[in-house]
Specification:
The complex is a heterodimer of chains A (300) and B (368). Chain A is mainly α and 300 residues long. Chain A has helices at residues 21-24, 36-59, 66-73, 75-108, 111-122, 129-140, 145-152, 164-187, 193-200, 205-233, 237-242, 250-260, 264-289. Chain B has two domains: 9-237, Rossmann fold (3-Layer(aba) Sandwich); 244-367, Beta Barrel (OB fold (Dihydrolipoamide Acetyltransferase, E2P)), CATH 2.40.50.140. The two termini of chain B are 43 Å apart. The chains are: A mainly alpha (300), B alpha+beta (368). Chain A: It comes from Shinella granuli.
Chain lengths: 300, 368
């Protein structure tokens, strides 16, 4: 074979294969109106009240930044704001630790077991949050199931109800599905044959897992962490029922201002602070989620 | 990428069972150092199972497997130091081309300039050095497979395994990459074991070919040996085009006489034992002639009708329906008499230009 053939040009499919123009272009005008009911509900039930809250935080009782000055001057408010973020961070971390192996298990077990695991994730969705939280009250209280069990073993009781750990445990249970499902959906798309390839190149099994599998699962981890963290920041029922005076979160303060003291301005200001903090966080997290390899750009 | 001595592989009485299913049934395979060995067969014939056993992806059920004179039974794949190229490329999507190729070096504690140099050399070898900073999804299939080849060779393994590496590529690219793989094999001296179901690919690439069927090896030999002297009907039919003639046969001296559609054929040689013989004809060894014309001494003739005539440039290819319904394939050289579809014609061949084989009904079933 003395001649040197040149590389043939490979055609790269960058778009859908050609289809009849009629089919490709079938986008009836006015299709956007299909979204109208949802948009209407969002406008009426979310955008309008939110606008009112924002406006009143600057105008009630008098125009100006008084409500914000009051919020940040109060040591209690600052402590509660900080505590809200710390609790959200703990809930996110504990959820992640529980969800990652669970989601991984879902990808490797057989079909029936996988269905059972999915069911375990989804069943809590079908129960009201109040009912679930009351169940935790029964489990966690001083004379509850956990402490009875500890007493039975001759161990000292632990204080869980009306403490931050109790709140974190309850919130984690409620929010766990929001961590498991995004991680699982990314994991089930990972080609496990890549691990076989890594092993053939000389990687021990755990190393192949850490260097190949874990990085490829990160988009799901980021998505789940952001959802859980943001939901945690605004959580109300669970912390209110499981927490005590020393574990009040921002949502309880808002409720107190608005419903008990009828102080819409201050309550609104707290809501706006939480909203802005959430946006800042999202802005920081966004570059993390942008995965270079997931770009669809292709060059010949 | 230093020219390292390739490793020999010695497989003896190896079987692989999955529950009640026997994927590999008592095979013996010896691969010489530096050899290009192709495992050829239809899907489910055991060729990929054999590759997986060598790679360490699956354990042998019984028998022995030695690589480079050392038994590797129980040795996990990451300790075998074997390069593997997969049909699905298996590049790590979160690493650039450069990082992918550097990965096996990093695992071996090779760092800095040395690693950079070796990555560069490996990518140069597959003509992908300009793509080191790209991500795999920015490359075409052929480019990805070249990177995968560089990654499997960058750590100088004595043995490279390839599992249908060109299966997902189009024909033109496949032919070009076949020549590239052949060139790289020549340059490195590494032992290559290549799995394919494409017999033409096997003929282009290999020093020797092992033909798999139903979990067994039917025959091991060079492409020429397999084509000219197939040991079984399966091999004869799997490698190249062929015509199989079946009929009532009887011994005649040191030869065999077969009656096909009322016409008698004489074949040199006899099959040992009780096996029912069939005749295998290669298209180039058969002539197409006007009925009754141009007879040579001792020539066999079977009359039929031309059902297909294809002009190939270097000659013509015909399909002829014989009296008993068999379709015979004939390839005539340039300058031979032309025939058109519908013409009556004789196929003509000498008693020595054929292969007498024991009949095997499974050879037909497996191919369709």
């Amino acid at each position: 074979m003395n001649h040197h053939p040149t590389e043939p040009q490979e055609t790269i499919v960058t778009d859908m294969p050609d289809r009849p123009a009629l089919l490709k272009r079938w986008r009836p005008r006015g299709a956007v109106w299909l979204a109208a009911p949802a948009v209407l509900v969002l406008l009426l039930a979310l955008a309008y009240p939110l606008a009112i809250v924002v406006v009143r935080s600057f105008t009630d009782p008098a125009p100006g930044l008084d409500n914000y000055v009051w919020f940040f001057q109060s040591a209690v408010n600052r402590t509660v704001l900080q505590r809200t973020f710390v609790v959200a961070a703990w809930v996110t971390l504990v959820s992640l630790i529980c969800a990652y192996p669970y989601a991984y298990a879902m990808t490797i077990v057989g079909r029936n077991l996988r269905l059972a695991l999915i069911l375990c994730v989804l069943v809590p969705f079908w129960l009201s949050g109040v009912v679930r939280t009351l169940a935790w009250v029964i489990l966690l209280q001083d004379s509850g199931v956990i402490n009875s069990f500890l007493r039975g073993l001759g161990l000292p009781p632990v204080k869980l109800i009306r403490t931050l750990p109790g709140v974190v445990i309850g919130m984690t249970q409620v929010l766990l599905p929001f961590m498991i499902l995004p991680i699982y959906s990314v994991m089930k798309g990972i080609d496990t044959r890549l691990l076989q390839a890594a092993r053939s190149l000389g990687a021990k099994p755990w190393r192949a897992f850490l260097q190949i599998y874990v990085p490829l699962s990160l988009p799901g981890v980021y998505a789940g962490a952001i959802i859980v963290f943001i939901l945690s920041l605004g959580f109300y029922i669970t912390p209110a029922l499981l927490g005590g005076p020393r574990s009040i979160l921002l949502s309880s303060l808002v409720q107190n201002q608005v419903l008990s003291l009828l102080n819409w301005g201050r309550g609104g200001a707290m809501g706006v602070v939480l909203l802005v903090a959430t946006f800042v966080l999202l802005a920081i997290a966004a570059p993390l989620m942008r995965q270079k390899h997931s770009s669809t750009r292709r060059e010949a | 990428m230093t020219a390292s001595a390739g490793a020999a592989i010695e497989i003896r009485k190896a079987s692989k069972r999955y529950g009640a299913f026997t994927a590999l049934n008592d095979i013996d395979l010896h691969i010489r150092p530096g050899e290009f060995m192709t495992l050829l067969g239809p899907s489910g014939s055991g060729k990929t199972t054999t590759l997986n056993l060598i790679a360490g992806f699956t354990d042998i059920s019984s028998g022995t497997l030695e690589i480079g004179g050392r038994s590797v039974t129980g040795l996990p794949s990451h300790k075998r130091n074997i390069g593997v190229v997969f049909q699905h490329y298996a590049l790590f999507p979160h690493m650039t081309v450069g990082k992918n190729v550097a990965y096996p070096l990093t695992l071996r504690g090779i760092k800095g300039d040395d690693r950079e140099k070796r990555v560069k050399r490996a990518l140069d070898m597959v003509k992908m050095a300009d793509f080191a900073h790209r991500y795999p999804n920015e490359l075409s299939g052929g480019q990805q497979q070249r990177v995968a080849l560089a990654r499997a060779l960058v750590f100088d393994p004595p043995l490279l395994l390839m599992d249908e590496p060109l299966g997902a590529l189009d024909k033109k690219l496949r032919e070009w990459l076949q020549l590239e793989i052949k060139r790289i094999h020549r340059e490195l001296g590494t032992t290559f074991v290549y799995v394919t179901h494409d017999q033409e690919e096997a003929l282009v690439l290999s020093d020797r070919i092992a033909v798999f069927n139903g979990g067994r090896i039917e025959q091991i030999g060079t492409g020429r040996e397999l084509y000219d002297h197939p040991a079984t009907l399966f091999v004869g039919r799997f490698i190249g085009d062929s015509t199989v003639l079946r009929g009532k046969s009887e011994a005649a001296g040191d030869g065999t006489v077969m009656t096909i559609g009322g016409q008698r054929i004489f074949a040199q040689g006899r099959l040992p034992g009780e096996a029912r013989p069939v005749i295998l004809l290669r298209p180039e060894r058969v002539g197409l002639k006007r009925p009754g014309a141009d007879a040579l001494t001792g020539e066999n003739r079977l009359s039929g009708t031309v059902t297909e005539a294809i002009y190939l440039g270097s000659g013509s290819k015909y399909e002829v329906r014989l009296a008993d319904g068999t379709i015979a394939v004939v390839r005539s050289p340039l300058g031979a008499t032309d025939f058109a579809i519908g013409d009556t014609a004789d196929i003509a061949f000498l008693p020595t230009d054929l292969t007498l084989l024991p009949d095997d009904a499974s050879a037909d079933v497996t191919l369709t």
